[in-house]
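Sanity check. The docking grid for fe (ii) ion depends on where the pocket ends up, so I'm generating a full predicted complex first rather than guessing from homology. Inputs follow.
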Amino acid sequence: MPYYRAVGEIPRKRHVQFRRPDGGLYAEELMGEEGFSSDSSLLYHRHAPTAIMKSEGVQDPVGEAELRPNHPLQPRACRTHDLPLGGDLVLGRQVLYGNDDVRLSFVAADRGSDLYRNSVGDEVVYVQSGSARFESTYGALDVGEGDYVVIPAGTIHRWLPVGGESGTPAGADAGAVAGDGMVRALVIEARGHIRAPKRYLSQYGQFLEHAPYCERDLRAPSEPLVREGGEVPVLVRGRAGLSRLTYLRHPFDVVGWDGCLYPYAFNIRDFEPIVKRTHAPPPVHQTFEGPNFVICSFCPRPLDFHEDAVPIPYNHHNVDSDEMMFYVGGDYSARKGSGIGVGSVSLHPSGFTHGPQPGAVEASIEGVRGGRTETSEMAVMIDTFRPLLLGPAARQCEDPEYAWSWARA
Ligand SMILES: [Fe+2]
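Predicted complex below; grid placement will be based on this.
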């Protein structure tokens, strides 16, 4: 995240004495990536960010989820809306797929999470529906339907679903949210950093004119978030599993920060689709890149407009990738008749050529003849460069007939 921001109070120069009103020094903390050779931010704490009192290993329902190879090889589909509801946005994650690079989970959260820090890599939480307040050492973000929330590794944060009727965040101890406060989300956990694709950026990190989004579309915390309290537990995800560290003082004690590393939100509706007269390939939908995977956004857009265009995808085989698609809105015409709907997930693995369902091509041409000029489809796609293994949630809500749906007349 190369875009410089300054929030709250900071001293005029780095690493100089910066004093609290009571005369004591603020505690400076540098959060930096790649051995401090990449993006970083400087945060100013009221208290030492190093003061921990206790560390305990805790059970890790997410990290310990069993992943099985997709063998015998076949395309898959499942319906996330058939999965159990409830839990929080951290420990309530239900693992769909994963490999050594990335883990993909669905969650339908109805309560606030504990404080949490993922030290393995960045996370992107795509909010399919509902509203939440994201609170962190950098400040808070109000997020809702269609938001990608990008959380740098190491950021201490928590998720508070916002109740539908009261509009108030549920505290970490508040239990279930009243009304329709469920937050459905797809969680993408990387082993490394998730960033805007390099080709969208100038040599120095500014979004270029051909990029489908830019700095103005990104929402970041705009003011400090300070909370009082002592003996505060924080769940920390490390490579060996989940630990609970108890901090002497509340980690939300930052009075100011500046730099290029911070959490931010980007809404899928701010993605400006790139279109051609004939069908454009998936890279035009790319939104983020991570280590050995990409994230793409399929958004409402004009249908391909060459007079003889076939306005839906051709059969394709991305030989180096597994392709997971999460269908989040609109009408996905290429999958008509396959049982796919909003909330479905498909997995089209390397080794299998996929394409429109039977009759979908003809129906799309017919639709254009009848005056249809745009598609309402919305989907989030993750292409991984190493095979995805099947998690318990995908196995639990799988449609066993999907693989054979192209052979049905
Ligand atoms: Fe595809």
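Relevant for the grid: Residues 170-179 have pLDDT under 50 and may be disordered.
Also worth noting: Residues 316, 323, 348, 354 surround fe (ii) ion (CB under 6 Å).
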